[in-house]
Amino acid sequence: MTTVGIIGSGMIGGTVARLSVAARHNVVLSNSRGPETLAELVAELGPLAAAGTAEQAAEAGDIVVVSIPVKAFGDVPVKPLAGKPALDTGNYYPRRDGQIAELDTGALAGPIAESWRQEPGTPAYGTPYGPFTDEAGTPASTAKIRADLIGAHR
Ligand SMILES: NC(=O)c1ccc[n+]([C@@H]2O[C@H](COP(=O)([O-])OP(=O)(O)OC[C@H]3O[C@@H](n4cnc5c(N)ncnc54)[C@H](OP(=O)(O)O)[C@@H]3O)[C@@H](O)[C@H]2O)c1
To answer: Is the model's pTM score more than 0.85?
Structure first.
């Protein structure tokens, strides 16, 4: 059984929590306002679920899902995530999130620096993965997604 740490328990984080519990994983949920504000969701999810601080969710998770407004990225506890798989659902929409210098300049390190290739407005963003690719609901092939990523330009 895996423990999924969840930082941000809104629309997306809450959905991931429900799906994780349905798959019989433990979840530790967190948000910005504190564990007590998640009591209702934890009760709904049952005994596999608990609430904690973002730090506690990051520490407890074998895998950690970050699903907060992108502008709050500086609040994500970094140390407990070292060496763990961490999935960030965030989309950077400057019109919504404000300009974030570290993302605008590509200054953040490692392969994540290439993540702009699937940002909003690029060919690989969104539609190739969903049931929206054609009327039959066929997802795009790996080759098409790869070509879209390579073909992205700023
Ligand atoms: N990949 C996708 O398909 C997809 C789809 C939709 C959305 N998204 C992205 O996912 C992100 C979250 O979207 P959402 O719709 O789930 O948002 P949401 O419903 O507004 O939920 C945001 C959650 O983040 C928490 N939060 C805010 N600031 C925080 C902080 N500093 N530390 C810890 N938790 C914090 C909020 O807690 P409080 O209420 O306590 O502040 C809330 O639980 C956005 O970037 C959105 O664009 C991705």
So the answer is: no
Ligand 1 atom closest to Cα of 75? 31
> Which domains, ranges and CATH numbers included, belong to the chain?
1-90 (3.40.50.720), 96-154 (no CATH)
Q: Which atom of ligand 1 is nearest to the CA of 89?
A: 1
Helix/strand/coil for 91: coil
What is the 91 CA–ligand 1 centroid distance (Å)? 10
Give per-10-residue mean pLDDT for the chain (154 aa). Answer: 96 96 97 98 98 98 96 93 92 88 74 80 75 63 85 88
Q: Which amino acid is at 32?
A: S
Task: Measure the CA angle with vertex 66, ends 25 and 48; round to 5°.
Answer: 20
